[in-house]
Design brief:
The chain is α/β, with parallel strands linked by helices. It has eight helices and twelve strands. Helix content is 34%, strand content 23%. The longest helix is centred in the last third of the chain and has 16 residues.
Length: 235
């Protein structure tokens, strides 16, 4: 099994402490933050981008987390049977309405961050398969009624040379910041379907996505031959 973050509680806590921080360059453009878009690579690669977004979340009692499926092809939405990290067992809610998958790192990698914000947070982990626009709208309507923070998990373009990736990712982020649903198909991201839900949610609630930070793996490792894009957005 791949370990995406430290499996030792003390090491994980120390890493989260270093990552969940508001950057000095952050400008608070949103008075109330309802949710975030964050990456889901190994913490050593994308953890700082994710952590800077999580630092802006309030200490909510509940969170709804949506991420793409990497290991199983299906239509619609599924959930996780149970979730446990080195920080403890997670209390889930609302999962009885869905079929389950065994693992999905796009969602599981968000859990330690949420536990850091509130160790007792209840979480609804949703893995999004292929969905139509009408299905995305229905899912958005459903989660909009839940009093929770909303976390959407996605990486951006994969395995392009650095400069090409930056151009591609900027185009995707422009669509997201404009909440331009009609151009959703032009987004280059593994979490396109969760983002489809996010865009409908923002439209329904009149929330506006704001880019907080963009980096790619080349900025972290120095290897710019083939990179993966990471972004943190607030809405």
């Amino acid at each position: 099994m791949i370990h995406w973050y430290p499996q030792n509680k003390e090491q994980l806590n120390a890493m989260l402490d270093s990552m969940v921080q508001v950057m000095k360059s952050d400008i608070p453009t949103i008075k109330q933050i309802h949710g975030i878009v964050v990456p889901h690579a190994g913490f050593e690669y994308s953890g700082n981008v994710a952590g800077h977004a999580y630092a802006h979340l309030k200490k909510s009692k509940k969170a709804v987390v949506l991420g793409p499926s990497h290991y199983e092809a299906f239509e619609g939405v599924k959930t996780l049977k149970d979730v446990e990290t080195p920080l403890g067992q997670v209390s889930l809610f609302g999962t009885e309405a869905y079929d389950t998958v065994e693992h999905e790192h796009s969602v599981e990698n968000q859990i330690p961050f949420l536990q850091k914000i509130n160790p007792h947070m209840q979480i609804l982990p949703l893995i999004v398969g292929e969905i139509t626009d009408s299905q995305a709208k229905e899912i958005a309507e459903h989660i909009a009624d839940i009093d929770a923070v909303h976390v959407f998990s996605t990486d951006l373009s994969h395995f392009k040379p650095y400069n090409s990736a930056v151009l591609t990712d900027k185009a995707s982020l422009k669509i997201l910041e404009a909440n331009d649903i009609k151009n959703w198909e032009k987004i280059d991201a593994c979490g396109k379907y969760p983002l489809r839900v996010m865009m409908h949610l923002c439209k329904q609630k009149n929330w506006k996505p704001h880019l907080l930070e963009y980096k790619n793996s080349g900025d972290v490792t120095g290897d710019k031959s083939s990179v993966v894009g990471y972004a943190g957005l607030l809405f």
